[in-house]
């Protein structure tokens, strides 16, 4: 029986892997392995977690950015989206801004984005075609990971503060929008003439995922009896994505760190059990799952 997973799993011994408490990680992996896949669920962020943070040094398009590439999107929206992203993205990844101040600024970003989308006529078909033509690269091993989890009937919640319509389109493009995958995100609301009215339901941004009430959702009913979670995210706010899984027993949190590494590393090591510095793959979660799939 393996007792020291951290030492045994070679992917956890690479120089870009940072673990604050190895004993804790060993215990979490032990509980997840011994309880088996019937007790497991995976909760993952989308933008820059399922998609890569960068490829050949170029950062990747977010799900919102993909929407702005749709042919029907007017120049005014494209310019607004570019201006807002140029203003707010540096704030999002800036470790020197307090949580409360950043939260207010993120709420502003999402609200201004939603207002700019109102009145546009962009069909789901166009969003899917654009995602297919632009499709950002997924982390290496993502398709295999999703297929392995599907074969073992392990639910995956893709919990995104991005644009759910683009998230779904990308997963469909890579044929990983499988029966075990659920998406909770900002989906577009249309009127009966196909005109965008805004987001459907409460807005999810990068700093309120921990408050999003998973209870009462179709996903929550699906995972009632699954007490163990492997959580993956690229933003500090992602570490709270499983807070809504009230019955959770072992929650193993994997954080993908890329921006402002020196300043962010201590914060990420507090928020995540395993921090992967500039790792554009799913190698670590797949190495852990080898023990139970
Ligand atoms: N290019 C744009 N990116 C945006 C915009 N609003 C938010 N965002 C990015 O989305 C992610 C959230 O998605 P998640 O799946 O990671 O939760 C966030 O990190 C922002 O950088 C926008 O208007 N344009
Ligand atoms: Mg993200």
Automatic annotation (TrEMBL):
<keyword id="KW-0546">Nucleotide metabolism</keyword>
<dbReference type="InterPro" id="IPR023214">
    <property type="entry name" value="HAD_sf"/>
</dbReference>
<dbReference type="Pfam" id="PF05822">
    <property type="entry name" value="UMPH-1"/>
</dbReference>
<keyword id="KW-0460">Magnesium</keyword>
<keyword id="KW-0963">Cytoplasm</keyword>
<dbReference type="InterPro" id="IPR006434">
    <property type="entry name" value="Pyrimidine_nucleotidase_eu"/>
</dbReference>
<dbReference type="GO" id="GO:0000166">
    <property type="term" value="F:nucleotide binding"/>
</dbReference>
<dbReference type="InterPro" id="IPR036412">
    <property type="entry name" value="HAD-like_sf"/>
</dbReference>
<keyword id="KW-0479">Metal-binding</keyword>
<keyword id="KW-0547">Nucleotide-binding</keyword>
<protein>
    <recommendedName>
        <fullName>5'-nucleotidase</fullName>
        <ecNumber>3.1.3.5</ecNumber>
    </recommendedName>
</protein>
<dbReference type="GO" id="GO:0005737">
    <property type="term" value="C:cytoplasm"/>
</dbReference>
<dbReference type="GO" id="GO:0008253">
    <property type="term" value="F:5'-nucleotidase activity"/>
</dbReference>
<keyword id="KW-0378">Hydrolase</keyword>
<dbReference type="GO" id="GO:0000287">
    <property type="term" value="F:magnesium ion binding"/>
</dbReference>
<comment type="similarity">
    <text>Belongs to the pyrimidine 5'-nucleotidase family.</text>
</comment>
<dbReference type="GO" id="GO:0009117">
    <property type="term" value="P:nucleotide metabolic process"/>
</dbReference>
């Amino acid at each position: 029986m393996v007792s020291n997973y951290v030492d045994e799993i070679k992917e956890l011994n690479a120089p870009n892997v940072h673990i604050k408490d190895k004993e804790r990680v060993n215990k979490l992996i032990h509980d997840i392995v011994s309880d088996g896949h019937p007790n497991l669920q995976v909760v993952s962020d989308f933008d820059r977690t399922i998609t890569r943070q960068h490829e050949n040094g170029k950062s990747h398009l977010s799900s919102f950015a993909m929407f702005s590439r749709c042919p029907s999107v007017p120049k005014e929206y494209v310019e607004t989206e570019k201006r807002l992203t140029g203003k707010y993205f540096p704030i999002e990844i800036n470790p020197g801004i307090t949580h409360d101040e950043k939260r207010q600024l993120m709420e502003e970003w999402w609200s201004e984005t939603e207002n700019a989308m109102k009145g546009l006529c962009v069909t789901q078909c166009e969003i899917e075609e654009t995602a297919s033509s632009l499709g950002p690269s997924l982390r290496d091993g993502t398709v295999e990971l999703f297929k392995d989890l599907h074969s073992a009937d392990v639910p995956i919640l893709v919990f995104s503060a991005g644009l759910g319509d683009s998230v779904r389109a990308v997963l469909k493009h890579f044929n990983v929008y499988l029966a075990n995958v659920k998406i909770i995100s900002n989906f577009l609301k249309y009127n009966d003439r196909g005109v965008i009215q805004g987001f459907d339901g409460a807005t999810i941004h990068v700093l309120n995922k921990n408050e999003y009430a998973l209870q009462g959702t179709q996903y929550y009913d699906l995972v009632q009896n699954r007490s163990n979670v492997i959580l993956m995210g690229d933003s500090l706010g992602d570490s709270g994505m499983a807070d809504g899984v009230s019955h959770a027993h072992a929650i193993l949190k994997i954080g993908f760190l890329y921006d402002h590494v020196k300043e962010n590393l201590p914060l990420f090591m507090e928020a995540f059990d395993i921090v992967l510095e500039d790792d554009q793959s799913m190698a670590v979660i797949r190495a852990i799952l080898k023990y139970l799939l």
